[in-house]
Write a structure and sequence with these properties.
This protein is an all-alpha fold. It has three domains: about 35 residues; about 230 residues, no CATH class; about 100 residues, no CATH class. About 75% of the residues lie in helices and about 0% in strands. Helix 4 runs antiparallel to helix 5, helix 9 runs antiparallel to helix 10 and helix 13 crosses helix 14. It is globular and about 70 Å long. The relative contact order is 0.08.
Length: about 375
Amino acid sequence: MYSQEEINSAVDAGVLSEDAAKGLRAHVVSLRERPVTDEEHFRLVSSFNDIFVAIGVVIMLFAVGAIGQAIGNAMFPVSLEDYGTRWRNDFAQLMFGGALIAGTAWALAEMFTRKRRMALPSIILLLAFVGATLATAFGLGGTIIGDPVGNDQSDTVMPVIAAISGLFAAGGAWLHWRRFAVPITIAAGAGTVAIALIATAIAIIVGTMEVEAEDQVFKILFTLMFIAGLAIFAWAMRWDISDRTRETRRADVAFWLHLLAAPMIAHPVFYALGVTEGNMVGIAGAIGVIAVYFVFGIVALAIDRRALLVSALVYVLIALTWLFDRFGAVELNFALTALVIGSALLTLSAFWTPIRQIIVGGLPENLQDKLPVSAVAAPG
């Protein structure tokens, strides 16, 4: 299967005319009886060779990470007389292991991303590079301060180190994007920036206010996560608006941003309802979860993205299981829940396009003009 990006590349190279490309897309739409936009394509595996290379990449990164940890362990030995050396040793292992993984991931990306354009290995290498860059910076900061527990300012020092590390990783993601332009890179960079901003905010709040209770910290954390999720969602929509027919790499970038934003929005909402701690308030709480999921469904249909539905699915399973158990179906509560959810998802998938047309058709025209194009294809 050829991706939209590859078809566009063929047009740019003169191998395929613009009219031929449009005809090909129209033909595919007629075969599937739904628009390409509604399929929400993204490249993951183009052949088994992707999986083969991905396995080799994971093994290689694991090996260099272990070597880096050994180097850190040798350079910062543990002293039984100084407990702080235990922490410094751990941070040093994180720093050297992360540095070697980041360097190796970049080198491998030169071959498998820049030259071979392999999807799955490129995703793994990007995530490894950004994660390792974050770990390297965090390990460096931890190695410098030594024992965070024995530090009187540990409540603020560690969030500051996390914030700086997040910005460092975001810079690495930007360089990676400039070099390789892997669609998931933007989401990875946005995630590290979110980590940096949230960590900075927590450091400021904890440092200036009397916040000691764990539940207070979690409330602050999830509030900040929700705000960051909304910001990333808005940014994802900007990418989506710039490619309403989803024919370029911009649609792939939007896909990964939505995938990042969805759990950051969903989890704080259901945390506020008490689902994550198992103390959901009776029937009202369960109905609240289902109502929120219904709203998520409307939004998902309108923007033609399924990430919100997937991210919130586990909470609906919990709510429905509780309801079936509450009304006597104790032995079959989970089975009935799975049956209801599975049937609903399959029905939604089968009738996604016509349902979406109804929802989008009821929106103001100026808003419709910013949403992905969708129309039921005429049978071929």
